[in-house]
Write a structure and sequence with these properties.
The protein is mainly α. The chain is 70% helix and 1% strand.
Length: 299
């Protein structure tokens, strides 16, 4: 008689290893493009290095210099102002649009595509487009104002208005991406909760604050972390739109680090130290947000 071969089932060890196998490509990308460069940055931050000559170990001298660098901390302060003003809009507007886009309305797919479309455009293109619209002499906005007999506005040659345009461009560019994130979170909330609240006499506003916001906490926390990090790294859009001007009114911390590394004296070691300081600050803010929001867990 022929022996019947028994099929082997999946062992417990294979079940434990399978999730790690799925994330292995992402771990490789993280190691190759984030972890390893960060380690090199930490090493070079302890050296005086121009990028061409051999590194010369200087210990913590670059960090001491950074803590006394007034221009660096001024750029950091401008970045913080930019983040604190932009963040509420980048979180609030996408949530408002997502609530509209999950309702049964005509041409919903078209509206979703229109709102999402700006997030697919390069930051450089966004910056050039807004510069074309808000240019002082050649901008469309000032041209329309002149047609109406109004005085032109110096959008990009005054610090306050330049910051306003940068924030406006940022909100326009990122709203669609976070709208889609919110839509996925809203669609995971069972409709039975809203039906039960309606039976109990709850208004739509009460349903939003008592049901939607609490159950949307994990998604909101994800948007908070992603948008916070994205705003702190702002560079391409600002470079194309204002180049950090007028003066230094829109020169943010990443641009300052880039200029320290590649402009002037090409101080790569010092720029690496500035990058490490920025990394620590962003990691600290992120950990504080995790603690304050309990990792986005629903209470």
């Amino acid at each position: 008689m022929k022996k019947i071969k028994k099929k082997k089932g999946i062992t417990s060890l294979e079940m434990k290893l399978f999730p790690y196998l799925l994330i292995l490509p992402n771990l490789f990308i993280f190691a190759a493009f984030i972890a390893v460069p960060a380690l090199f940055g930490a090493y070079f931050s302890l050296n005086k290095w121009s990028g061409m000559s051999a590194p010369v170990f200087v210990g913590l001298d670059n960090y001491v210099r950074a803590f006394h660098d007034v221009k660096f901390w001024q750029s950091f302060g401008r970045t913080l102002v930019y983040v604190l003003i932009s963040l509420p809009f980048i979180m609030g507007i996408p949530l408002f649009l997502a609530n509209l886009m999950i309702k049964e309305i005509r041409a919903k797919g078209m509206f979703r595509a229109l709102f999402y479309w700006p997030s697919m455009i390069s930051y450089i293109i966004v910056g050039i487009s807004f510069k074309f619209m808000f240019g002082d002499n050649t901008g469309i906005i000032n041209y329309l104002l002149s047609l109406m007999g109004k005085a032109k506005v110096e959008w990009l040659t005054q610090g306050t208005t330049a910051m306003f345009v940068v924030i406006l461009a940022t909100i326009w560019a990122r709203t669609g991406f976070y709208m889609v994130t919110y839509i996925s979170g809203l669609q995971s909330i069972p409709l039975s909760y809203y039906e039960a609240a309606e039976v109990d006499g709850a208004s739509p506003i009460q349903g939003f604050f008592k049901i939607t916001l609490p159950l949307l906490k994990p998604t909101t926390f994800l948007v908070l972390i992603l948008s916070f990090i994205d705003l702190f790294k702002a560079y391409g859009l600002v470079l194309a739109l204002t180049k950090g001007g007028p003066g230094t009114s829109t020169k943010f911390v990443v641009q300052y680090i880039y200029e320290a590394a590649f402009d002037g004296k090409r101080e790569m070691g010092y720029a690496s130290a500035l990058s490490m300081i920025l990394l620590v600050v962003m990691a600290t803010f992120t950990l504080l947000q995790f603690k304050a929001n309990k990792g986005g867990e629903i209470e």
